[in-house]
Amino acid sequence: MQGLSYSEFGKPSQVLAVQELSKPEPAAGEVRLRMILSPIHNHDVLTVSGQYGYKPPLPAGAGSEGVGIVDALGEGVQGVSVGQRVVASGLKGAWAEYAIAKGASCVPMPESIDDKTAAQLIAMPLSALTLLEFTGIREGQWLIQNAANGAVGKVLAQLAKPRGIHVINLVRRADAVEELKELGIENVIATDAPNWTEAVTSLTGTSPIAVAIDGVGGDASGDLLSLLGEGGQLISFGVMSGEKMRISAGDVIFKQAVVKGFWLAKLMETMSREDAGRMIGELVTRAAKGELKLQVDAVFPLAEAAKAVDAAVERGRKGKVLLRLS
């Protein structure tokens, strides 16, 4: 079979190579998937470049999520069957014609969910839903997030609305405002506009902002903190700028603010199977009903992986870049 692998950390478009690999065999509790589509996530790119929270032993396969057809079952697997279309995350080597997944992580997909949606339905949407619940925010309260046109930001805004949570969505460019409005996302503000903070306060009025979610870092972290109400939370889940958070000690002290980090992989270690099942069930249900919209910017064949990973890190995308694997 063909698949992408790398033997050194570096720029993904330079170190990833399409190679002829042995078809993997599922061990007990595992399934083999004949992969259809897989998204290129930011954490996939960071892993290949050696900048993520862990470094896999080399050589390594790339890609962590995707939709595929169950091709073979390991001993003891229950809940899925050969020939069934499923989505799985937490894969090691999803960017290949065949990949191994834990049987318990495979989520069967109804026919009403297309392959492009299914391929990206778990990792980023589950991060968004877990992040929303992690904040403890309640109905009627205000939340502000930057990087709102990212995969997590878009899903978080869509999931917050039916919960009665008010979300202010910050983007860095004016053309992204319409992009979010097309998804039915409201309260979108471009930070390249003068006096954008005044636009924020005109939306909230006298109501305090309870939670700020920072996916950018640098000065953007301090901007969010300055807008928080007393006792508010600033939650960091990404560093798109590549810069350290720069926040005001005065804002932390006098607002009695709380600054916390969020990493889904760490939370999944202690999350109960019931909670994980409940949240994944909500994502599948909403996607099947068309209530959760996941955009795709482009689809590339495996042979054009270098172009695909470069496209995935370009600014101005309107959705995920996917690799077609079969």
From TrEMBL:
Single GO MF descriptor? oxidoreductase activity, acting on NAD(P)H
Which positions fall inside the Enoyl reductase (ER) domain? 11-323
- Specify the species: Rhizobium rhizoryzae
Q: Does the keyword Oxidoreductase apply?
A: yes
InterPro entries registered for this protein in UniProt: ADH-like_C, ADH-like_N, ER, GroES-like_sf, NAD(P)-bd_dom_sf
Keywords recorded for this protein, A-Z: NADP, Oxidoreductase
Q: Which Pfam families match?
A: ADH_N, ADH_zinc_N
Return the protein name: NADPH:quinone reductase-like Zn-dependent oxidoreductase
> Oxidoreductase: is it a keyword of this entry?
yes
Q: Which PANTHER family match?
A: QUINONE OXIDOREDUCTASE PIG3-RELATED, ZN2+-BINDING DEHYDROGENASE
